[in-house]
Amino acid sequence: MEIAEYVETLRREGELLAKAAEEAGPGAPVPTCPEWRVRDLVRHTGAVHRWATAFVEQGLTTPREPDEAPDLDGAELLEWFTEGHRALTATLAAAGPEVECWHFLRAPSPVAFWARRQAHETAVHRLDAEAARGGEPAEVDVEFAVDGIDELLRGFHGRRSSRVRSPEPRLLRVRATDAADAADAIWTVRISEEPPVTVRGADGTGDAAADCELAGPAARLYAALWNRAPFPSVHGDARTAALWRDNAGIR
C-alpha cells in the first residue's frame, strides 16, 4: 500500500472510532479491552496520535513516551480526539520523503512507517469502540487486513520483545482465504525459545506440516490475531493457537 492509501484509511478509521465512541458513551465498557471504558480508549488513541504527529512534524530522532491525555470527558474529549486525529492525517499527508525521524519497525521511509502504523493502530481501536457500542462493525478492506497481519507477524513479533515463545518448537501457519493473491497471503511462523521467525508466501511453507493452521477471511484473521475476535478456524493442535492468544498481546 502507498502512503496516501494509509493516510486515507487512517482518516476513515478515526472518524469511525469517534462515531462509535459517541454512540457508546464515555462510560461504556470495552469488551475487547476489559480494563478500559470508552473514555480510556479515546484518551489512549488520541495521545498516540499526538505522539506520532510529533515525530513526523518535529523530526524527532530519539524515542519518547506519549504525553498524558488531558482529563476531559464526553463531547470535550471527542473534540480533543478529533483535533489530534486531523492533525495527524494532515501531517502525514504533507510530509515529504526527506523527513527523518525515529521509528521502530522496518519501512521504506519513516513517513511510510508512521502512516502504516497509525492506520492500523486506529483500525484496531476502532474495532474496540464498535465492540463497546455493539452491533455490526464496519468492514476492514481485505488488502489492508492482509497488510496488518503482515505488520503484526513479521514486524511486531520479529522483535526481541515478542512474548510468543515455546520450549517445544512449534510451526504455526496463517492463511487468508480471500486475498487477491492467495499464495502471498500465507505466513509460516516458527515458534521456539527465541523470538518467532515468520516467512511470508507459499514458498516459505516448506515441507514441514504446520502444528496448527489459522485460516479464514483476512479481516477476521486480522481482528483475531490482535485478540479482538475468535479465530475463524483452527486446524491441528489447538494448544498452538492458545499459545498465541495468551502471549501475543502488544505492549
Q: What are the key terms here?
A:
251 residues, alpha+beta, Nonspecific Lipid-transfer Protein, Chain A, Four Helix Bundle (Hemerythrin (Met), subunit A), globular, 2 domains
Short description:
This protein is α+β, with helices and mostly antiparallel strands and 251 residues long. The chain contains seven helices and five strands.
Any overview of this molecule?
The chain is an alpha+beta fold and 251 residues long. It has two domains: 3-133, Up-down Bundle (Four Helix Bundle (Hemerythrin (Met), subunit A)); 145-247, 2-Layer Sandwich (Nonspecific Lipid-transfer Protein, Chain A). The protein has helices spanning 3-24, 38-58, 74-94, 110-133, 142-155, 218-225, 238-247, and strands at residues 170-176, 186-191, 197-200, 212-216, 234-236. A five-stranded mixed beta sheet has the order 3-2-1-4-5. The longest helix has 24 residues, at 110-133.
Side by side, the strands of the main sheet go 3-2-1-4-5
- CATH class type of the largest domain: Mainly Alpha
How many domain units? 2
Architecture per CATH nomenclature, i.e. the level-2 architecture of the largest domain: Up-down Bundle
Determine the CATH topology of the largest domain.
Answer: Four Helix Bundle (Hemerythrin (Met), subunit A)
First CA to last CA: what distance?
Answer: 25 Å
Rounded mean pLDDT score: 96
Give start-end ranges of low-pLDDT stretches: none
Shape: globular
How many helical elements? 7
